[in-house]
Design a protein that fits this description.
- A 5-stranded parallel sheet has the order 2-1-3-4-5, with helices on both faces.
- The chain has a domain of 156 residues: Rossmann fold, CATH 3.40.50.360.
- It is α/β, with parallel strands linked by helices.
- Helix content is 32%, strand content 19%.
- Bound molecules: flavin mononucleotide and iron/sulfur cluster (SF4) (2 copies).
- One iron/sulfur cluster binds next to helix 7.
- The site of one iron/sulfur cluster (SF4) has 13 residues, from helix 6.
C-alpha cells in the first residue's frame, strides 16, 4: 500500500504524531512518504491512503493549512484520506476536523478516519491559561498521545472506519465560539505578528530567524523583526535559547514554561 503523509508543525507535536503513524505503517510493509506541507504544492501524488496532521489554533486549523487544503487540485480518482489534529484540549478541538472535511470532500476525497489527539499546549504567549505544561507533565501527555496514535494507526491498517464527532464546547455560546474562531483566523493571525518583541537579553543569535517555518523573521540591527506571514506557531518563542521572545498586550512569557516536543529538531534555513 502506498501512503502519503503531510503535516504542519510549530513545536513538533503534529510532526511526532505523523512520524509515529509513519513508523507503524512502514513496519507493516507499506511504502510511506512523509513531508511538510508547502503552500505552492498544488498536486499531491495519488496514493492508496493520504494522511494529514495539523495543530489546532483557536478551534480551527492554522491559516497556512487552510490555504494549502483549499489550493490542492481535485483528485482524479476517489482518494482515501485520514485526518488527525493535535490539540492542547482534545475536548474542544473537533471543529478543526470539520473544517478539513468540508474542504477535502470537494476534492474527491473519502474520509476514512478522523481524530483529535491531545498533546502538550504550546501557546506560550496566550493571554489566558492554559499555558505550556512543565516538562514532566508534558512527557506524560506525549506518552498518552502517542499510544493513542499507535492504536489509531493499527485501526486504520485493519480497515476500521471512525469519525470524530464534534460538539460545540459547552462553556461557550455559539456566538462566542465563532467570534473566537473568526477573529483569530481572519484578524488575529494577520495582526498578531505586530505584538512580538524581545526582552533585553536577546543576543542576536539568529536562531529564531533560521527555524521559523514560514521565514517570517529578519534580524535587523541585531534584533528580530517579524512580518505578516507569521502563523503564530510559537516555534520561535519556545526554541529561543535566551527565552527572550514575548508579545505585548498580555503575551508576557517571563517565568512561563516553554515547550517543544523534546525530540523535534527544526531544520535550519539560510537567512539573508
Ligand atoms: C495560536 C495557538 C492557538 C491554539 N489554540 C488552541 C485551541 O483552540 N484548542 C486547543 O486545544 N489547542 C490550541 N492550541 C494548542 C496547540 O493546538 C497544540 O499545542 C498543538 O499540539 C501544537 O502542535 P505543534 O507542536 O505541531 O505545533 C493553540 C496553540 C497556538 C500556538
Ligand atoms: S533566538 Fe532569541 S536570542 Fe536569538 S535572535 Fe532570536 S530572540 Fe534573540
Ligand atoms: S515568527 Fe515565530 S510564531 Fe511566527 S511562524 Fe515563525 S516561528 Fe512561528
Amino acid at each position: 500500500m502506498k501512503i502519503e503523509l503531510k503535516y504542519f508543525t510549530g513545536t513538533g507535536n503534529s510532526f511526532r504524531v505523523l512520524e509515529t503513524f509513519d513508523a507503524i505503517f512502514s513496519e507493516n510493509i507499506n511504502s510511506t512518504n512523509i513531508s511538510e506541507i508547502a503552500i505552492d504544492d498544488k498536486r499531491i501524488p495519488e496514493s492508496d491512503l493520504l494522511g494529514f496532521c495539523f495543530p489546532v489554533y483557536a478551534f480551527g486549523i492554522p491559516r497556512i493549512c487552510y490555504k494549502y487544503l483549499k489550493g490542492i487540485e481535485r483528485f482524479n480518482t476517489r482518494q482515501k484520506v485520514f485526518i488527525v489534529v493535535t490539540a492542547g484540549d482534545s475536548n474542544e478541538s473537533g471543529f478543526a476536523i470539520k473544517e478539513c472535511v468540508k474542504i477535502l470532500s470537494r476534492k474527491n476525497c473519502e474520509i476514512i478516519y478522523s481524530a483529535v489527539i491531545q498533546m502538550p499546549n504550546n501557546w506560550t504567549t496566550s493571554p489566558k491559561p492554559p499555558f505550556p505544561p512543565s516538562s514532566e507533565d508534558a512527557k506524560q501527555i506525549i506518552h498518552k498521545g502517542l499510544i493513542q496514535t499507535q492504536e489509531i494507526a493499527k485501526e486504520i491498517l485493519n480497515g476500521v472506519i471512525k469519525y470524530h464527532v464534534f460538539n460545540y464546547p459547552k462553556r461557550f455560546s455559539k456566538l462566542k465560539f465563532y467570534w473566537d474562531y473568526w477573529t483569530f483566523k481572519y484578524i488575529g493571525v494577520q495582526n498578531m505578528w505586530r505584538l512580538f518583541n524581545v526582552y533585553d537579553n536577546c543576543n542576536a543569535c539568529q536562531l529564531c530567524a533560521k527555524i521559523c517555518p514560514t521565514s517570517s523573521i529578519r534580524i535587523i540591527d541585531n534584533k528580530p523583526v517579524w512580518n505578516k506571514t507569521c502563523e503564530q506557531c510559537m516555534r520561535c518563542v519556545n526554541f529561543c535559547p535566551q527565552e527572550s521572545i514575548y508579545q505585548t498586550q498580555g503575551g508576557d512569557t517571563k517565568g512561563k514554561n516553554k515547550y517543544h516536543e523534546p525530540n523535534f529538531k527544526p531544520s535550519l534555513k539560510n537567512i539573508k
